Predict the structure.
Amino acid sequence: MYYDQKNECLDKVAKKKLQSERLIDVVNRVYEAVPPYRAKMDKANIKPSDIKSIDDIVKLPFTTKQDLRDNYPFGMLATNKEDIVRLHASSGTTGKLTVVGYTKSDIDIWSACCARGLVAAGANTSSTLHVAYGYGLFTGGLGLHYGGELLGLTVVPVSAGNTPRQLTLLVDFAADGICCTPSYAVYLADELIKAGYTAKDLNLKWGIFGAEPWSEEMRKEIEEKLGIKAYDIYGLSEISGPGVASECEYQIGSHIWDDHFYPEVIDVDTLKPLPYGERGELVFTTLTKEGMPLIRYRTRDITALDDSPCPCGRTGLRLKRIKGRSDDMLIIRGVNVFPSQVESALIASDERISSHYHITVDRVNNLDVMEIAIELKADAKFDEIKEIEELVSKVKSDISSAIGVSASVKLVSYGSVKRSEGKAQRVTDKRSL
Ligand code: DLL
């Protein structure tokens, strides 16, 4: 089942033609209307007429979050402010918010891309969708809400928070689909059991999870605990929001809706595009956006592109799981460490371990140290202290072989790692304080 079979399954020749036409159009638009783009292109000695096909994209300068901050709040808009019907914003690691303006057409295309992802995950017009992403300046809630409504689903705009009410509504409204962050899905599943329900009390069949890195192990945990199929969805506010890429029934990477968002993966040192399959930083060019088009926007997300055919028939290049961000990557004693690697290793390590954890990095006597507080499952039982010691040493050795650095491990009781209703805050890096 597709939402838009023609555009989701374009053959190579048709897609390249469409991408080329759209790139030429967007480059002309930003050169005319957005002074920062014109200045960058002039500096690089590139004129819109130099862009004759999608292959010429490599000639264009990159755009970064800093460019958006420097032109806060509306300096990157390519249309009149009157044509902007919505503003969203995401928090940066430092400084000002990153603001995004959408025209009516931008909202329509964004909604259609979310609708593609919903259908790919199993939604049909009789579905009920429980949206537990936050509504507001964050794009998760409203993005999937509009996608769901466009499809004609019954959308329940619960938003994030108030877990007991989420559980009641899931039971009473019998939603078959849910979307939220993957860490919140695990939390909801645990709270469900605590409240005396089982997955059988719910009608859930599928869920769409994203907005933060997660692992295959976490997918399995969510699928088992909620009795559903769990699909990845990727996006970022700057490009639109959720629904830049979504997984299909084969769960082998998220199809990028590359008729609208053109992806490249670049080497972070040379800034040159890498071949498909090689891991680097993901860069997007929006091909159809009107309000705030972005040219070669550096996402900081580390991943690889997969161009192998997918049995579902969709031809959108697939995104491999995001392995973290080039800017949340921890360097511990010279080794690059992504929190998602730690997560995979610890969940796989022992069945008594939950997926709630917190990493603290510090520097003691000029040496980086990493401590991981790992929550045990509510029903984890130990007869002797020795068993706890054995578990600690197993987890330590599994983590060290997965990431290449040793960490001290602290097992903590169920419920003691701080929960988040949105994106989990998994790392405290005291070295940079
Ligand atoms: O998180 C949009 C979104 C909402 C995506 C709901 C999916 C579902 P931002 O707040 O701007 O937008 O954060 C974007 O979150 O650059 C990635 O680092 C991370 N991210 C988003 N989706 C995934 C995912 C939304 N599926 C940033 N896997 C991105 C890993 C993800 N990381």
